[in-house]
Design a protein that fits this description.
disordered C terminus; alpha/beta; 10 helices; Rossmann fold; 32% helix
């Protein structure tokens, strides 16, 4: 596949298998160019996000696999004196934005004739892959942190996935999955593989169809795939002449584990202060080494974006404030509330905030009893 190449050595993606890293140098595979968006090439007869199929860099022969993902509402409200449109990604089939990536990732797996995969996830990506794997008749083994939401783990199991809990930080589950990959299993990684990025780009296409060109887009950031995909979607729209300029991109992280915010604010040496050992209610973005971190940092800097960090004591108030407006989301999604507060005075309008995961996934969020966060003085 000439469209996808190793970002380190330039090796084209192999014609067989589904390697999550370059077999020559260990680098990450990515698109060699941004997607090409063409209004005339849209296929409205296809389900969900698949109407944008011409923008996807999937292996040849990848089938359409859909549970009706995409077409999520854009609902307006007023926050901190500004008009904000919320993109309700938690209304996707399994309750999160990950379904846009899960559909394409599973299509790539099926297109390469693979029948069983392994993955690691703190919840939403695993639930999505489990659902789409079930739809496609594929066996999925998912490693998940023991601290992850019981509801999310139950959701994975309900789709007949093999769910294995791993003690320790989020990175321990990733190490377990990569050990299986080293043993010959196909690692269908939502974090490493580039295919889900094209799925997240469809959020930008839908926002364009719903309101035109936004001034600001605010979204949670873990590995960086969601924001990177959205950014590339808007770049594709700009390249097609449909929007004049890129929106301001504001990536939000939990202060407990905010590597991109740290580097953005303090340079590479600031990474020394970042750890994934501190618990956070925003478990979906508790990622110390973001796969797409360097790529997203460059893009944010090139287009005058920013990274924001939310203190732990502001997460649940944000979740509750959103719920009082009718948006029931999990804590990871709720960090956008305080993110909007931080940039309310300077963010170009219209402002769009991405609400990524359903509150039903973490109905009663709590941290381990021994965890006490210091009070502000």
């Amino acid at each position: 596949m000439e469209t996808i190449r190793c970002t380190s050595c330039g090796t084209a993606y192999p014609d067989e298998g589904l390697p999550y890293r370059c077999p020559k140098c260990g680098g990450v595979f990515d698109r060699a160019e941004i997607p090409t968006y063409d209004l005339k090439a849209l296929e409205p007869s296809l389900p969900g996000i698949w109407r944008y199929r011409h923008t996807f860099a999937l292996p040849e022969g990848s089938p359409v696999i859909s549970l009706g993902e995409g077409n999520t509402p854009l609902v307006w409200d007023e926050l901190f004196g500004r008009k904000v449109a919320f993109k309700l990604e938690y209304l996707n089939p399994t309750g999160s934005h990950k379904d846009r990536g899960g559909a394409l990732l599973t299509a790539a797996v099926v297109g390469r004739g693979i029948k069983q995969v392994v993955e690691d996830s703190s919840g939403n990506a695993g639930a999505s892959l489990a659902a789409y794997a079930a739809r496609a008749g594929i066996h999925a083994r998912i490693y998940t942190p023991a601290y992850a939401s019981k509801v999310k783990r139950a959701q994975m199991a309900a789709y007949a996935a093999e769910v294995i809990e791993v003690e320790g930080p989020r990175s321990a589950a990733a190490e377990a999955a990569r050990a299986d990959a080293d043993a010959g299993y196909t690692y269908a990684s939502h974090a490493f593989l580039p295919f889900p990025l094209d799925g997240y780009a469809t959020i930008a296409y839908e926002i364009y169809e719903q309101l035109g060109a936004p001034g600001t887009v605010v979204a949670p950031v873990g590995h960086g795939g969601l924001m990177l995909g959205i950014a590339r979607g808007f770049l594709a729209l700009k390249q097609a002449g449909l929007i004049e300029k890129m929106p301001m991109l504001a990536g939000v992280q939990a202060l407990a584990c905010a590597p991109l915010w740290a580097v953005y604010r303090g340079g590479r040496e600031a990474l020394g202060w970042v750890t994934d050992q501190v618990p956070t209610l925003a478990e979906g973005v508790r990622i110390r080494w973001p796969v797409w971190g360097d790529t997203l940092l460059r893009l944010i800097e090139e287009h005058n974006g920013t990274f924001l960090a939310v203190e732990e004591e502001n997460i649940l108030p944000g979740r509750d404030a959103l719920a009082k407006r009718g948006f029931y989301v999990e804590p990871t999604s709720a960090i956008v509330w305080d993110g909007i507060r931080q940039i309310a005075e300077c963010a170009p309008e219209p402002i769009v905030a991405i609400l990524t995961g359903s509150g039903y996934k973490v109905p009663n969020p709590s941290l381990p009893q021994e965890t006490v966060f210091p009070q502000k003085k």
